[in-house]
Amino acid sequence: MLLRIDHVGIACENLEEKIAFYESAFGVTVVAREVNEEQGVKEAMLHVADGEGGGSYIQLLEPLHAGTPVGKFLAKRGEGIHHVAYGVSDVTAALEAIGATGVRLIDLHPRHGAMGTSIAFLHPKDVGGVLTELVESPPRPS
């Protein structure tokens, strides 16, 4: 079911400073930026590598305000890994299959994610304390 690690989401206080750090320290490049009002974040996707199942990224997340999920995460835990995202071929089917095992779903249906993806989250208490995201990439142009 899981095709790859799609990205690791990292909560940060200052998106521009973290982008500069990751570009300088690791030689990665920003491939997309977005403001996601629904999730309350400014985000940047930094390309790490391509593989058979698709690309892998670092997703930097800066909250739009303190009351957002990422804002609350920063206040409680500080900067660091917020979630791990796995690529799947069909996020709706993955939700059904995983939900059938008893894992609680934060999202019952997919929603908009970065770079045109469809995403859904699983409850961290049922996934070893890790907020887990499922990501279905848009079809590749032929």
Automatic annotation (TrEMBL):
GO molecular function, one term: methylmalonyl-CoA epimerase activity
Record SUPFAM superfamilies: Glyoxalase/Bleomycin resistance protein/Dihydroxybiphenyl dioxygenase
CDD domains named in the record: MMCE
Keywords annotated in UniProt: Isomerase, Metal-binding
Keyword Metal-binding: yes
EC number: 5.1.99.1
All copies of domain VOC, residue ranges: 4-137
Entries under NCBIfam families matching the protein: metmalonyl_epim (TIGR03081)
Family to which the UniProt record says this protein belongs: Belongs to the methylmalonyl-CoA epimerase family.
PANTHER family documented for this protein: METHYLMALONYL-COA EPIMERASE, METHYLMALONYL-COA EPIMERASE, MITOCHONDRIAL
Protein name stated in the entry: Methylmalonyl-CoA epimerase
Originating species: Sphaerisporangium rhizosphaerae
Lineage of source species: Bacteria, Bacillati, Actinomycetota, Actinomycetes, Streptosporangiales
